[in-house]
Structures are given as structure tokens and as C-alpha cells.
Structure prediction request, 914 residues.
Amino acid sequence: MIDPKLVFGVLVALGLVWTGVWGWILVGSQQKAPDTEVGPKAAALRRRLFYLFLPLAVVIFVASMIWLPYPAARAGIVGQPQLSVNVTAQQWSWTLGQTEVPSRVPVEFVVTARDVNHSLSLYNPQGQLVAQVQAMPGYTNRLIHVFDQPGTYTIRCLEFCGIAHHDMVARLTVK
Amino acid sequence: MTARISQPANGAVLRLALVYMATGFVVFLLMGLLGLLMRLDHGGILVLSADWFYRIMTLHGSGMVAASLLAAMGGLAAVLGQTLRLSTRWLATAFVVYFLGAGFVIIATLLGGFGGGWTALHQLPFKGFTWGLWAALAMLVGYLFVAVGFLIYCWLVLYTTVKRYGGLHRVLAWRYLVSGGRQGADSLPGPSEIAASVVAIVGTVAVLAGAAYLVPLFGEAAGLVGSLDALVAKNLLFLFGHTLVNLNIYLAAGLVYATLPLYTGREWKTTWPVTLALNLVLLLVLLPYFHHLYQDFVQALPLHILGQIGSYGVALPAFLVTIFGGLSMIYRSGFRWSVPSILMVAGLWGWTFGGLGALLDSTIGINQVMHNTLWVPAHFHTYYLLGALAFAWAYLYHLLGELSGASESRLGSLAAWLYGIGGAGFILTFFVSGAASVPRRYAVHIPEWQVYAQASVPFVLVLMLGIGWLAVAMLGRFAQAWQKAGA
Amino acid sequence: MDRWGIGIALLAGVWLYTAGWARARQRADGSLATRKRLLAYVTATAVIAIALMSAIDTFQSRLFSIHMLQHMLLVYLAAPLLLLSRPATFWRQGLPAGLRTWPTGVREWRAAEVLSHLARPAVALGLSTVILWLWHIPTAYDLALENDVVHALEHLTFFGAFLLYWWPLIGSPSRLTTNAARTVYLAGGGAQSGFLGGIITFSPRVLYTHYLNAPRTGGLSALADQQLAGVVMWFPGVLIYGLAAALTMTGE
Prediction:
């Protein structure tokens, strides 16, 4: 649902703004002005920033709730899942109820683990991570995902689980 | 004109602080070499066996966390020793226990084969297959020792500040805070003293969580109790681990409160915003740990929400008071450029940039596509290398320079800039990797991912160049500084 | 080892010490003769007795872990306790009047000088470490297990090595005068002994052929027994260094 590259773009944009500010401070540091002058201006700026950041944080926070991946929230946005796929993770392989799923409909993955924590992650044909959920021993996590693009998806384990953690790979065909 | 340190009340504290920081620095160097090995493996340049990669990864993580915390602990002890009577008895005991604990970890990974990651998440320590039970237990015992060492330090700090100011409410300046700054302004503790006390309180809670995690694990190994519930285990572990690493930067901030003024000619006083910020940190800093469990869907939703609130929330006081405060102190101050000031400035940059990455990742919806990719190491390497560690080495360099009477050098300033630039490039490649969905904790990178690690290597070399020069410079000053400290 | 011989020597030691302690207490400057010191001496004796005369001694030739326990009792309990009790002072006082001033002259003066050099922290740490590691070389360790005289020598030198190690810390006069110095000393000692313990714990093969050939006891394979021995040396051993820090650091 969210493109990691877009997130990186946001980071770079904000980072550039921040670096600009930081650099400006450093350049401005070479001159000298008494603290009695700088202090009150800084305090005033800080107050202004606080009244800017706090509401901004609240707005972003509330807006971000639309992307909650939890089953109830996700189903509320995309609809109830039309298909349930059982997934069991173990050191170091995947057991999938089925290896073919339809695209453009909500699919539910019912995920658990036999031994230690693992994580079911879905990588699209371009190698981008599109969804993940922890596979926990003694628990079942349900991940609802809509595959908007058909093709071969890669399942990787994304929670460190031992020596063959990086080899715990499976394929999922999305039709 | 060299910036002056106010005469320490106790040379014994200074010497112990040097022991703490020097040990931290040496371990940092060694762990850094391990980190380089990991990056070379990722780049396909020097391929390690999976077994060795994970052992090195485990040691690198735990070793860096331990070294960084140790250095900050030592530095802050030296700072506090200027205004408080700190008992070196317990400062020394804490070091010995902590150091020996670290030894367990080194032996468990290098000799015992333990490769369960520095988080040692249950049940992996007991289900590793490539290491035996004693290696896992040695690792956990090592953690226990380190936690106890840290706890002793926390209690020493708290005991000292509470005794000096006559009560916890005075140490945290509650009357001053609640009255809007109108009352209680006469006997306020310094910002470093408040920061240290906040860390000590939160640190105690974190260690208790750690004990609650470790003790059942020992019981399980002994066959006395059944396996710890996976969700409970995760919550306890991350409450312990995340909080511990998070506290590091607040300890290091205490160093900045004490040192930046010396290069700006201005004072960092305990103002009402400072008091508010540190008390807010006290309240909020235990909450962010939930962001490690966003992908454990079975965890109750309110806890996930609390995690995002805490993660967002704690950024406000950190940025608006410590970072903003530092910047406004630097602005138009006739700032003196030298190794310590450059490193501090790099740290202020990094703390914020890393914070931006962290804020993004701590948004649950974004975390879905970034958790356990290299984005996570990206943000904490930024917090460490260009944050807590930058502050710690700034302070160490400053302290050694002060004590030994060594003069500043242009080459040193260049080395500090190399540290900053190399560090920045290095962490940026991590962020890029995270954007490219490269997983973390993989011993083997597929060809598509290797290019990112390869790109990081030149930056690592630049970083190493900077660190190398600083290391040599500090080594050269150490003997004299040690002598003068005891005088 | 000859248990009767050991028993008699220990008893004689207690007799001598207690007599001297009592005599010292009656004197005007009897401040040295504290109850703690007496308790330390008696406890040290008891620990040695348990280590060398109990079932521990019976089983040490069959189980490496028990042998390790024996060594641990001697070097980490008995040795420091003995040092704390200041035995030389009170043994001398316990001697009959005529013998009390007997060891005088050049010989004693020389010995004191040599001991003084050995008790320098760097020397004590270095020497005790070397002795510890040398005896753990398989050839040496196996020899001690096969030959009673060498075994006695091993125990004596282990004990002596750790008397030496603890001396700068708790002997008198104390050579480590600052907490910073004690920190480095204890961290170093703990690190090297922990390292050796770790090597033994994680060694993939049995190090000492004596135990390879010893009859299986307690249901433990030779390798499992060796792992346990390593753990016995490592975990409680390192803990002792941590405790020593808490107990010997002074308020500076």
C-alpha cells in the first residue's frame, strides 16, 4: 500500500530542509551576538515551532491510521477476505496452504510458527516489500492483503531465526 | 583560547571515567571492524560462512550497544563528578561487573558459536542448532551481568542526586515545573544532573524488564518452568533492549549539555523548557518500545497505538529542547571549530536525521513495508554513529585535550569532518537499502542488493580514516591525561 | 593425597593460629585480632578440608567438573579467606616463646624482599595468570592427574598463585590503593580466567586424556563433564571477581 521509495523521498526532502537549516546555523555561528539577543528570539521560535509541530503530528498521526494493517482495520478498507491461506513457518522452510492466489481481491494469510519467531513477508515481482506479518509460536496472526499486480511474488522470512534465515524463501503465484 | 573544564571535585572519578570511556572506545573500534566485515560480506566482496556472519553480527550488535553505553556512562560520571560527590566505590564495581558481562558475550559468540542475534529473542537462543545450551546461557548470563552493572550505575547516580538535592521531586524540579518557573528556581539541578537522573529511573525499569525476561529463560533451561509465552517474551525483551539503547542518547545528551557551552561561550541552564522536556522524556520514553511489535498483530491494538504516540511524542522534547537548544546556543556565538565541537554538531545533525527516519518507520502503516529491512539499522546507526557516539567521542577528546594540555590541530578538525561525512554516507546507503526493501540480518545478499553494500564501503573507509586519526590523537594524550587526572 | 597428613597439618594450623590470636587479643595492641579474622581463618581451613579431604577429593580423578570444583574452592574461597586472616602474624604469636623470634636474619629479610616484588600488582596478575594457564596445558594437567607428587605440586602452586593474585588486593599492606587500579586489576583477572573457562567449556574435543579414560560417572560423557567443568570455572569464577569488586572497593 505504501511505496518505500516514496518514504525515502520524504526522508530526503525533509533531510535536505533540515540540513539546510543546520548548515545555516553553522554559517551564522561565526558571527557573534550576545545571548540576551539570541535567547529570547530562540525561545519565541521554539514556541512557534511547538504550536506548529504538535498539531501537525496529531494530523499526521490520525491520517496514518488509514494504513493500519491489522485485520479489522484492513478489512474495513478493502473488504472481507475472499480466500484464506494457511502459512506455517519453521526453521527453515515454509508450509503454504496454497501457492496460487488471485489478484485484486483481499486474501487472508493465517500465519503461525512451529518453533521460533519468523516473519512472513511478501515481495512483489519487482523485489519491493509490500506486506509482512510476524509468525509467532503459539499464536496466529492474520494478514489481509490485496495483490494489485499478478506475477510471481517472493516470500522471505523477515524475522531472524537462525543460520538459514536468509534461505527461508518460497514463491507465491498471483494470477 | 582553549575551553576550560571546571576543576573536577574528585580525580578518582575522572580516572574511572577515563577507564570507562577508553574501554568503550577500544571495543567500539573492534566492533567497527566486525561491522566492516559484515558490509564486505553483504557486498559480495568477502563472503563469510553464514555461521560466522551471524556470530559476528551478534557480537557486533551487543558489543556496540555495550561499548556505546559504557562510554556515555563514563563521560557523564566525569561531568557529574564536577558538581556532585560520586562514590567511586560503586562506579568501579559497576564497571567490573559490566566489563566481565561483556566478556561472557564475546566468548559465547566467538568461542561458543552463539549466533542468535544481539536481541537473543526467545526461543532462538535455545533453538539455534549451531550452538549448544551453554553458549546460549553464557550469552544470557553476560546480559545479566551487564544489566546489573548498569543498574548499579543508575542507582549510584540516583542516590547521589537525590542526596544532594534533597528528594526526587527536587532533582526533577517538579515544583519549578508545575509553578511555571515561578517557584523553586533557586536550587535547580543542572541539565546534565536531571538528564542523568531521568536515565537512572528509566534504566531501572528497563533492567527489571530484562530480569523478568532472563530469569524465566534460565528457569526454562534448568527445566523448572515451561517455555515463556512468545508475546510476553517479546514485550519484555524489547522493553528492556529498546529502552536501554534509547537511554544511551539521553546520557550522551548530558555530555552535550556540559560541553557545548564551552565552545559557544554560553551557558546551558536549567530553564523551564529544559525541565519540562526532561520530565516528558521520563514519562514517554518507555512507550516507544511497542513499535518493535507493530507486526505482531495479536498484540492488543491500544498498545500499537501507544507505541506510535510514544514514538512521535518523545521526539518533541528531544528536538525542541535538546537539539533546538544546542542549535540556538551555537547560532551567533562565535563558535569555535575543533574536534569536539565538530563532532557535537555532527551528532545534532544525525540525531535529527535519524529521528526523521525513525518517525517515518514508527508510523504503523509505513512500518509494514520497512520493518526488518535495512531501514531499521539505518536509523539506529545514525542515532549511534552520528548521535550518541559522536557526543561521547567529542567529550572524550575534549577531556583528554583538557587534561593533557594538548593544543588543537587543523588535521584533527579535518578528521572530525571525515568522521561526519563518512558516517553520513554510510548511513545513507543503509536508508537507500531499506527503501529498496533489502532485509536486515541476512548473511547472504542477492546480487541486486549487493550494490548497496558495495556503495557503503568507500564511506566506511572515509569514516575509518577519521576515526583512525582521532584514535591516534587520543592515544597520544592518554598517558598525560591520566597523570593529570590523578593529580 | 594423604588425607591424614593434610588433616594433621590443618589442625596444627588452627591450633597455632588460635593460640596466637588469643595471645594477641590480650595485648594492649590487640586490635589486629578481630573475630572476623579468626572466622576467616577457620572458614579457610574448613574449605581446604572439604576440598582435599571430602568426597570431592575422591571423585576429582573421575570427574573433571569435580576436580574443577576442588580447585575453585581452593583458589577463590580458601586463598582470599586465608589472606584476610593474616596467618603469618598469628602463627608466629602462637609459637612457644622461644621460637617466636626464631626466623630472623638475612634469610627472612631476603624472602620479604622477594615477596614484596612478587606482590606488585602487575607481577602478581601476570605470574598467577601464567601459572594458571601453564597447568591447564593438557600434558601438564594429565601428568598431575597421574602422579600424586605432581598433583600436590599443582595444588600448592595454584594456591600460591592465587594467594599472590589476591595479595595486592586484600593482603597487607594493600598494593592497590585506588579504585581505578583495583578496577583494572579485577577486570584483567576476571577476563583471563573467564577466557580460560570459556575455552574449556567450548572445546570441541576432550582436552585431558585422563578423563577420556576415566570410568563414566554420574551419567556424564567425558565431553559433557568437561563442559560442566568449564562452566564451573567460568560462571562462578567471574562472579567472584565481581563480588570482589563490590567488597574491596573503598569510598574515595
In short: Residues 3-248 of chain C form one domain.
